[in-house]
Amino acid sequence: MASLASDRAAQNGAAVWIREIRATLVLGLPIAGAQLAQMAINTTDVLMIGHLGTEPLAASVLAFNLYILIWLFGSGLIQAVMPIAARARGEKRMRDVRRSVRMGLWVVIAYSVPAMVLMWQTEAILLWLGQKPEIAHTAGLYMHYLQWALPPSLATMGIRNFVSVMEMTQVLLWTTLAGAAVNAFFDYVLIFGAFGAPRLELAGAGIASTATATATFALILAYTLRHRRLRRFAILGRFWRSDWSVFFQIVKLGWPIGLMILAEVGLFAGSAAMMGWIGTVPLAAHGIALQCSSITFMVPLGFGVAGTIRIGLAHGRGDHDGIARAGWTTLALSVGFMLCAAIVFWTIPEVLIGAFTNDDNPDTPAVIAAGVSFLAVAAVFQIFDGAQVAAGNILRGLSDTRVPMLIAVAGYWGCGMSLAYMLAFWAGWGGVGLWWGLASGLAFVSVAAIWRFAWRERLGLV
User: Fold this and answer.
1) Which end of the chain has fewer surrounding CB within 10 Å, N or C?
2) For residues 181 and 196, what is the distance between their CA atoms, to the nearest angstrom?
3) 51 — phi, psi (to 5°)?
4) What are 339-373's pLDDT values in tens digits?
């Protein structure tokens, strides 16, 4: 009898974990798909701009790195809506769910104005960072069109957070796929002057991105306002009405998230600036390798968002076992996927880099050779990258943001950036040394964040 009871307990325990894995996949896969579709928009830009030549590609890499730096910090602010809304839903405080979404959109408005003023100065910023004047000028012109995508894109993130907390993630995938298709069409038409349109090159890519961001926001907002489960929240009802306690709660929780993301992305943006010091060809190859790494990163990021929601709901219910299952499941799925991505990077690097280049360009063989060496290192840190994004998100589900932010700053800048500079310039490893520095920063953050989640009860996080 004791043996039978033990077997049943083991089966029940396994069933609980299987249900958690299934729930995380059902929630996380559409989010991951939506993240990949979002990256497809930027990947399409890089693919088409790459056919304009090495210098336009290098300029777009610099401009986009600055844009994504600003965008991701803003998205970190807005991500605070997710744990707040998820915990409120777990505690059945539906009115607070609505308030968090509305004030999240207020935060978007408050952030976008100064951010766009900063982006208008892209050329001056790049010159200050030591970039070539002609490339800095081209990058600045591109940013003058791209920057208008920021407000609708961040507002879309706010609505997506709400829809995700309501566990209706399929619509995120379909709306983002529609946006990717629209962007590909406008990119082709406006960059190359197809179908009688003017050939605008980089300006066309920026206009296409802005039009796509606006259309995507309109689509998901219309869905939210019309769907019977979501419209009862009336997220735009009395939009002018302030709720400053919720507004500042979002800012208080969100700025460490934004700074944590900024520390990570700043590591990559800083590496792009340093790669520009090495040469135009390494910079172009660096941009392509980063784009490949960013694509794979979107999948564990999607799983991590699912982990934030699952843990937030369990936290609201006071379910400590549920918190543990959700966290470890998120980590396992994220690292498992990145192991597969690392194998792809190791086995077919020439194919991946070659997809972003033009065979008629005389610099193409050098770009491919440099890109292959960068992807070899990127394959190593894929595992750490998946672990750190998953760990950061599950801690976020516990509303733990300040210490993870400090870990990120120490890891990415104290370890990663300093080692990247030393290996690239002091040790003479060049671009490969930069990439090994990136890997070290990811490794530091992943180990520290996983340790913090493992000790969550002793640290008083739950």
Assistant:
1) N
2) 20
3) -80, -5
4) 998 899 888 888 888 887 776 677 778 888 888 88
